[in-house]
Fold this sequence. Notes:
43% helix; 10 strands; alpha+beta
Amino acid sequence: MTLLTNASRGIFATLALLGVLAFASMPAFAQRVHHRSSAVLDAIQPELKFENVPLSDALDFIRDTSQANVIVDWKALESVNVDRDSLINLHLRNVTLRKALNIILDEAAPGDVLTFYMDDNVIEVTTQEKADSIMFTMVYPVQDLLVQIPQFTQQDLSGLVSAVSSSSGQSTTLGGGQTATNLSSGGGAGSALGQGTSNSQNIKTQADAGADLVKLITDTVRPEVWRQNGGNCSISFYNGLLIVTAPRSVQEAIGGPID
């Protein structure tokens, strides 16, 4: 099993946060639809056992047992040499409907040729190519992801500790008899803090941080589909917002399910 590097963990954490922010920005009605769709696709299927069962029968069985609305674009499937009689062989227990559909479609045509998506409580099975021909534009608020935290060096911190240690320790009487030590006088901690922020000059502007986020996504989420890499999808950053025009599968890789 390959372990994730710190860099890759950072990438997935960023994309996960994007999903949270995108979901948080949905209208209340869209969130209710999202919950309904997720409930259908995440429903557990107790047992599925198909031995040389035609694809059409396997999907009919899924439809009947899950009570989900499943439609199949057979014309699209036939364009990639998958028909109703393509044989399915699998035996699964206690898997979600989402996982079951993924395995069935991969059994019918290995290699991400087929896919499905849910729209208005209807699951449509089609080809990845046809699904990718339908573009969506989504706006993700990402300003919170771009907050830069100054990185102090050990020298900065040593200077601060030294300043605190050597401060005059003058006290000012406050209300209620409390006292506060004046740490900012004559080379004390206050001036050390000011000097200790020299590295803040390395903090990126919001535009630069946004550009880095765009590059992170175009390098990691289906790189071949982006306009920068010769594809048809677009992504741009403007004023704390990430604006993405891409197929459903790409949007879901960035921000989670949009159904």
